[in-house]
Amino acid sequence: MLIGVLFFIISCLAILLVSNIEQFIAMRFLQGIGLCFIGSVGYATIQEASNETVCVKIIALMANVALIASLLGPLAGATLINILPWQGIFIIFAILALIAFVGLFFFMPETVTQKGETLSFPHLWRDYKQVLKN
C-alpha cells in the first residue's frame, strides 16, 4: 500500500513536467493506477486487520466518502482552478498523499505479523503464483 501511495505522489509531481496533452493523459493514467492500488490493498487490509463488525463500518464509511468525493470533487476543483494554476491542484494532491503516506507508515496495522507469521517474499511469490495458476 505504501508503494502505491509513493507511486501516486511521484506521478502527481511528474505531471508538473509534462509539455503536451499526450504526456498529461499518460500521467493521469499512472495516477489512476496508483489510486487503484491504494483502494484495492486498503480494502483487503481492512478486512484482514479488523473484525467483521468494524470492517463493515469502515467500508461503509469509505463508500460514503467516495460518493461524497465524486460530488464535491468537481466543485472543489473548479474553485481551486480559479485560485491557483492547474499545477496547484496536483501539488495539493501530492501534499495530501504525503500526509496519508506518513499516517499509513506509522499507524497502518501489519496484518502479517498480527497472525504470528513473518513476512517472506519467496512465500509471498509462491502464493501469488498459485493464484495466477488457478
Q: What is the number of strand segments?
A: 0
Q: How many structural domains can be distinguished in the coordinates?
A: 1
Mean pLDDT: 88
- Number of helices, where a helix is a run of at least 4 consecutive DSSP H or I residues: 6
Low-confidence stretches are none
Describe what you observe in this structure.
- The protein has about 130 residues and is mainly alpha-helical.
- It has one domain (about 1-134).
- Helices cover about 85% and strands about 0% of the residues.
- The chain is built from six helices and no strands.
- α1 (about 1-15) packs antiparallel against α2.
- The model has no long low-confidence stretch (mean pLDDT about 90).
What layout of secondary structure does this protein have?
Layout: H1 2-14, H2 21-49, H3 52-83, H4 86-107, H5 111-114, H6 121-133
